[in-house]
Amino acid sequence: EPEVTQTPSHQVTQMGQEVILRCVPISNHLYFYWYRQILGQKVEFLVSFYNNEISEKSEIFDDQFSVERPDGSNFTLKIRSTKLEDSAMYFCASSFGTWGVGSGANVLTFGAGSRLTVL
Amino acid sequence: KQEVTQIPAALSVPEGENLVLNCSFTDSAIYNLQWFRQDPGKGLTSLLLIQSSQREQTSGRLNASLDKSSGRSTLYIAASQPGDSATYLCAPQAGTALIFGKGTTLSVSS
Question: Which residues of chain B carry a pLDDT beneath 50?
């Protein structure tokens, strides 16, 4: 079964450092997402991406965050200057379609996550 | 701003019981609602998606209903098994974002 692959599985970094989290979405999917989950809290939406541009972003996704699809297969999340409160599990997801398309196309497939620890 | 509440927060049952997990949301202007399962330390697995025009959706032992006007969804699990032990998350969608509840953590004992 196709899957979303994320690397690294765990990254430890010092506060103020730049971090890039990488994702390989399912090959025929068109919509890409990043979510995060701080330990013990809800899964939170960060950003959605379609046709090489951001479709929607949350209040969390400030100027410290950026996303990129540098080639035909990878989708990255960059945090420019990490803070302690950025420590979380970051999930990448992809879908073929979104709302308004046939029900199966809306289903998001999530990766296993990248755990970021900021010291 | 959409707020999602899931009740109960945790549930422990013996194998074989039928269960109902509840989800409520404050903004009924949604396109669909998805139910996910999350195992400890793992990603999210999609279980069911209900379009806003649908009332329910079934997959195997799982049945999800949606009452959009009242802002409620329920996930019914029939004949629970130890392998069903996980956290179940409800997520209505408006726009491209899913808004998640904190989930119901289910433990099924054999």
Answer: none
